[in-house]
Design goal:
7 helices; alpha+beta; five-stranded antiparallel β-sheet
Length: 324
């Protein structure tokens, strides 16, 4: 929806309402389409809630399962442990939650922190689309419920004991401090995309030479106007890049006072107007949404805004990656 922000998070297939909802993480055994999920959640007597994510394929409801005793993931068929990230030790997972390569997701606890892990069979290279999606979905939905330090895709260790010895124990205090910093905060990504016809018209109106070249090539064979087309394309590209810098700065200035941190990302498309990650305190969520709504109103018809999140806070943490 042109100019819309704050109340929707766009997914690959449409838009999902950003009303608080029961969130789930991973894929539950027995589901043919692999989209039903189960969440890590704090131990509570009531229901857990969370906002929708722009990357989650599906949502279910249900009470969080009791925490596992002993604090260690089962070794399963191979003894290898795929590591998703670090969470507080009081988090629990729901039985039957599946992750990468259909391994059951459990927790390996040590002190006040825990690693989200799953069994994995290393009988093929990792990196299939389903693997990447399972990793991403589990971490994004976890971030909607509890603080999480996400690992990049592909972190594998030889077993739960090694997860404790080589990962959790040496970095316990570092991880715990980072989790405490993330408590009550969430990452969101704001993406702005120019309306092509509008931004091209802006450039042609503002740069007389571009307008002249456009008239020169209009209706003419490509081979006869090749040089002019090249110059026009370069001129438009440079002008759009300059506008992107200015519009990104406007976005940052609008939201930065309401955010804990802001990270400007590289554009992913030539028509990108802005691509910014932000870390937001839950207490300032309403103010943040209102600021984006105001900006969306000002940009309506020129820039389409999308708000994705809450997401795993890759832009604001730097956790060590375990060795295989």
């Amino acid at each position: 929806m042109p100019g819309s922000t704050g109340k929707t998070a766009t997914t690959g297939s449409g838009q999902t309402a950003r009303e608080p909802a029961r969130r789930t993480t991973g894929r539950t055994a027995g589901e043919a389409d692999g989209k039903t999920t189960a969440k890590p959640a704090r131990k509570t007597s009531g229901k857990t809630t969370g906002k929708t994510s722009g990357k989650t394929a599906g949502e279910t409801s249900g009470k969080a399962a009791p925490s596992r005793s002993g604090g260690a993931a089962r070794r399963g068929r191979t003894g290898y442990a795929y590591v998703y990230g670090i969470v507080p030790a009081d988090v629990e997972t729901e039985p039957g939650t599946l992750g990468v390569a259909d391994g059951e997701v459990t927790l390996v606890r040590h002190g006040e922190i825990a690693a989200l892990v799953s069994d994995i069979v290393l009988d093929r290279p990792l990196g299939r689309p389903d693997d990447l999606l399972a990793h991403e979905q589990l971490l994004d939905a976890t971030a909607a419920e509890v603080p999480v330090l996400p690992f990049r895709f592909g972190a594998v260790m030889t077993g739960p004991k090694e997860v404790v010895k080589e990962l959790l124990a040496p970095h316990h205090d570092e991880f715990l401090a980072a989790l405490e910093e993330l408590e009550g905060r969430a990452e969101y990504v704001i993406k702005g995309r120019y309306v092509e016809s509008v931004i091209i018209r802006e450039v042609l109106d503002e740069i007389p030479e571009a307008g002249r070249l456009r008239e020169e090539v209009h209706g003419q064979p490509e081979e006869a106007t090749w040089d002019a087309r090249i110059r026009l394309g370069q001129m438009i590209g440079e002008a759009v890049a300059a506008k992107r810098d200015a519009d990104t700065q406007e976005l940052v200035e609008a939201v930065a006072p309401l955010c804990v941190a802001v990270s400007v990302r590289e554009p992913t498309h030539e028509q990108d107007a802005a691509h910014v990650a932000v870390l937001v305190d839950e207490e300032r969520q309403d103010e943040f949404d209102e600021a984006l709504d105001d900006l969306g109103d000002r940009w309506a018809g020129r820039i389409d805004l999308r708000l994705l999140g809450p997401l795993a806070p890759y832009d604001f943490v730097a956790a060590p990656r375990p060795e295989e």
